[in-house]
UniProtKB/TrEMBL annotation:
InterPro entries: BlaI_family, WH-like_DNA-bd_sf, WH_DNA-bd_sf. It comes from the Bacteria. It comes from Marinomonas primoryensis. Belongs to the BlaI transcriptional regulatory family. One of its GO terms (biological process) is negative regulation of DNA-templated transcription. The lineage of its organism: Bacteria, Pseudomonadati, Pseudomonadota, Gammaproteobacteria, Oceanospirillales. This is TrmB family transcriptional regulator. GO terms for molecular function: DNA binding. Coiled coil: none annotated. Keywords: DNA-binding, Transcription, Transcription regulation.
């Protein structure tokens, strides 16, 4: 799955706000980004059709909310891109991951080590 720049902006906005209609989203981005209400509406509809947003009819408009958590989407996107580009080259995936990890602070690196240790323990127990 590919996401355009506006799609990413709208997802981030809805993860933060939890619930909004197209007019609320447009009002938020109107001054900083520009663009028409129609563009916002069609982008929200595209995200809904991709299964990333849920929507509820409220009068004549839809109210949108995230259908997936941020970490769930990140995991899916990372899996898609690594399968597409690295295929079965786990060394390339690990090397890229190490390159990314150089941008992490100490607290995040410790969290990563903890997650790896937990994964190793769970794998050793037959999970």
């Amino acid at each position: 799955m590919r996401l355009g720049e506006l799609e990413k902006l709208l997802l981030n906005y809805l993860w933060k706000e939890k619930l909004a209609d197209a007019k609320q989203v447009h009002s938020h981005f109107e001054l900083t980004r520009g663009g028409s209400l129609n563009t916002i509406q069609s982008t929200l509809d595209r995200l809904y059709k991709k299964g990333l947003l849920s929507r509820t009819k409220c009068g004549y408009a839809y109210t949108y909310s995230p259908a997936v958590e941020r970490k769930e989407l990140l995991g899916s996107l990372i899996t898609d891109i690594t399968q597409e580009l690295a295929k079965n080259d786990s060394d390339a995936i690990l090397e890229a991951f190490i390159d990314i990890s150089t941008q992490l602070d100490e607290k995040s690196l410790q969290r990563l080590e903890d997650l790896i240790a937990t994964r190793k323990n769970n794998t050793g127990k037959g999970k």
